[in-house]
Amino acid sequence: MSDNQLRVVWIYPDLLSTYGDQGNVLVVERRARQRGLDVARLDVRSDQPIPTSGDIYLIGGGEDRPQRLAAERLRRDGGLHRAVGNGAIVFSVCAGYQILGHEFVNDLGQREPGLGLLDVVSVRGEGARCVGDVLGDIDPRLGLPPLTGFENHQGVTHLGPTARPLAQVRFGNGNGTGDGTEGAYNDTVFGTYMHGPVLARNPLIADLLLKLALDVNALPPTDDRWYEALRTERIAAAEQPA
Amino acid sequence: MAGNSDPLTPRAKLAVTAGKAVAAASRAAGRGSGSVIGGRVALKLDPDLLARLAQHLDVTLVSATNGKTTTTRLIAEALKAAGPVVSNALGANMPAGITSALAGGADARYGVIEVDEKYLVGVAQATEPKCIALLNLSRDQLDRAAETRMLAENWREGLAGTKSVVVANCDDPLVVWAASSSPNVVWVAAGQMWKDDAWSCPSCGGVMQRPGDDWFCGECGFRRPTPSWALSGDHVIDPNGSAWPIHLQLPGRANKANAASSAAVTAVFGVPPQVALERMYQVQAVAGRYDVVQFQNRDLRLLLAKNPAGWLETFSLIDPPPTPVILSVNARGADGTDTSWLWDVDYTRLTGHPICVIGDRKLDLAVRLEVANQQFQVCDNLDQAVQQCPPGRIEVIANYTAFQDLRRRVGN
């Protein structure tokens, strides 16, 4: 971060903004402003270059064809690689998560190269689509309370050796690999299947992204009572599906 | 037309009678109108019943993500100028409900039928409509519905080469993509506030350019067709360029758009726009929507909004601040169980309104409003929310099952 301004980049809202994942951008913005930060939000359409000087990049979920188009345009653009090289934080959801991996299966049923920013490979699941509330325990290294979210995907994502699972699910499917892992991360790049949006359900993950971007260990507290109330309700719902 | 020869075979007659008997039994048991269960039984006895019932009718089908129930009512009202009309006025819009509605209209000349988006192609094949009205397509219940673009693709393939006159909104690129495989399209500039499902060209995937009211794909040349009908403020402009005033009891821009599309539909059947628009004034609340009810000394206006596009249109018609607003959201099966779509709604438009939230998912609304930096109160139920508001008008906006809950509570 430079000149006291946090730059939040929302990648391709024209293609990857189908499942309310704009909410992740809104939560990051809101929680940064509550800490007195000056926030510049940049929405980058898929016919525009990805800026390389952002602090936090967010990518959402989308439908199958837009996912392929987004991957093609991000590969061609190359800006996100440079941003990660500059130390930027990236947080991705569902279709966006798959794009950050080495490859995924596109709408034509073909293997589509991703960006290789996360050591994961995604394939199409053979079973039923994973839809519903999810509850999981986030990797203890991150020191965060349980993960709650809503999943809605057909994809299955396998982790390679340099990606750590973001969480282990207690209820729900997550990565769909059968071993209970959900999402993946490395030092600065995060991916998850969780909608909800996930940062509205898990505001402390938003704070983690802020801390990494600001390179600080703690942030001033915020009044999180509505987030807490929602979390309690959704965690109970995941434990006792209808 | 109906008259000398009876269009129904003995089997079809039996199916109609059996369906009505089951519907009556269902009503007697207090399980709603019985139209869906009755239609199911009838279709089981005679799978071609829908086609047979439609045979003696001039059929219009109406489909869209938003506005199909209201538009069906507007068209039905206007078409009565030309002859008796049968319609699924209660909004049962899948094949069983449609069959049941048509079975009750033996003397009708016109059938005006609302159809669920996913069933449009099948119902069109069965009923061979004279006219199909396509109003808009946007994201709705993504945890269980088809992708929005896939729905447009399904319409496009299923309607290719249809003999029907397709009346379609030229301001919605997905609708234009769906309709442009049809040889006979009447384009209506009905407008569309929500744009976020059509930034990607449905034809080639290029990025859509949207200067002002126009739109086009910068890469493949797919572009907004020239309309022959248009909504212009409070008027409908007909193909001759004449402007006809819209007088509705229903509020909002979206209903004016519905009226414009309806006028274009009824013109297909020879009803002049001025006659059609005058008749549309008769339409009051449709299945409780837009109804103003007295409740605890307040005037509650009941507004149904099921998805981001619907909420956007609804915010544009509510009374200005300080009119209080009550928001109610559920996520039961019929609503879609994922509430993420709340984050596609711009709640900063409510700035200045006192806001109360209720419904099964009031806590999702609370977090959403907190992040939008709005003042709000979380209430246990409608009664408690209403008590927070001074006497006078309250705008109550709810999604599908939350709306049904409201109607039950206020006795509407």
From TrEMBL, chain A:
**Where does this protein act, in terms of pathway?**
Cell wall biogenesis; peptidoglycan biosynthesis
Listed CDD domains:
GATase1_CobQ
Question: Which transformation does this protein catalyse, written as a reaction?
Answer: beta-D-GlcNAc-(1->4)-Mur2Ac(oyl-L-Ala-gamma-D-Glu-L-Lys-D-Ala-D-Ala)-di-trans,octa-cis-undecaprenyl diphosphate + L-glutamine + ATP + H2O = beta-D-GlcNAc-(1->4)-Mur2Ac(oyl-L-Ala-D-isoglutaminyl-L-Lys-D-Ala-D-Ala)-di-trans,octa-cis-undecaprenyl diphosphate + L-glutamate + ADP + phosphate + H(+); L-glutamine + H2O = L-glutamate + NH4(+)
Ligase found in the keyword field: yes
User: Can you supply a Gene Ontology BP term from the record?
Assistant: cell wall organization
- Residues at which substrate binds: R129
- EC assignment: 6.3.5.13, 3.5.1.2
Key words of the record: Cell shape, Cell wall biogenesis/degradation, Glutamine amidotransferase, Hydrolase, Ligase, Peptidoglycan synthesis
Active site location: C94 (nucleophile), H195
Q: Which Gene3D superfamilies match?
A: 3.40.50.880
Q: How does it assemble?
A: Forms a heterodimer with MurT.
Chain's role: The lipid II isoglutaminyl synthase complex catalyzes the formation of alpha-D-isoglutamine in the cell wall lipid II stem peptide. The GatD subunit catalyzes the hydrolysis of glutamine to glutamate and ammonia. The resulting ammonia molecule is channeled to the active site of MurT.
Q: What HAMAP family does the database record attribute to this sequence? A: Lipid_II_synth_GatD
In the record, the note on similarity to other proteins reads: Belongs to the CobB/CobQ family. GatD subfamily.
- Know the name of this protein? Lipid II isoglutaminyl synthase (glutamine-hydrolyzing) subunit GatD
TrEMBL record, chain B:
One GO BP on record is: cell wall organization
Catalysed reactions, semicolon-separated? beta-D-GlcNAc-(1->4)-Mur2Ac(oyl-L-Ala-gamma-D-Glu-L-Lys-D-Ala-D-Ala)-di-trans,octa-cis-undecaprenyl diphosphate + ATP = beta-D-GlcNAc-(1->4)-Mur2Ac(oyl-L-Ala-gamma-D-O-P-Glu-L-Lys-D-Ala-D-Ala)-di-trans,octa-cis-undecaprenyl diphosphate + ADP; beta-D-GlcNAc-(1->4)-Mur2Ac(oyl-L-Ala-gamma-D-O-P-Glu-L-Lys-D-Ala-D-Ala)-di-trans,octa-cis-undecaprenyl diphosphate + NH4(+) = beta-D-GlcNAc-(1->4)-Mur2Ac(oyl-L-Ala-D-isoglutaminyl-L-Lys-D-Ala-D-Ala)-di-trans,octa-cis-undecaprenyl diphosphate + phosphate + H(+); beta-D-GlcNAc-(1->4)-Mur2Ac(oyl-L-Ala-gamma-D-Glu-L-Lys-D-Ala-D-Ala)-di-trans,octa-cis-undecaprenyl diphosphate + L-glutamine + ATP + H2O = beta-D-GlcNAc-(1->4)-Mur2Ac(oyl-L-Ala-D-isoglutaminyl-L-Lys-D-Ala-D-Ala)-di-trans,octa-cis-undecaprenyl diphosphate + L-glutamate + ADP + phosphate + H(+)
Record keywords, A-Z? ATP-binding, Cell shape, Cell wall biogenesis/degradation, Ligase, Metal-binding, Nucleotide-binding, Peptidoglycan synthesis, Zinc
Q: Where is the Mur ligase central domain?
A: 65-265
Instruction: Indicate which residues the UniProt annotation says bind Zn(2+).
Output: C201, C204, C217, C220
GO MF terms listed in the record are: acid-amino acid ligase activity; ATP binding; carbon-nitrogen ligase activity on lipid II; zinc ion binding
Q: What class of enzyme is it?
A: ligase
- The Lipid II isoglutaminyl synthase (glutamine-hydrolyzing) subunit MurT C-terminal domain extends over 304-403
The UniProt entry, under HAMAP family, shows: Lipid_II_synth_MurT
Protein's name according to its UniProt entry: Lipid II isoglutaminyl synthase (glutamine-hydrolyzing) subunit MurT
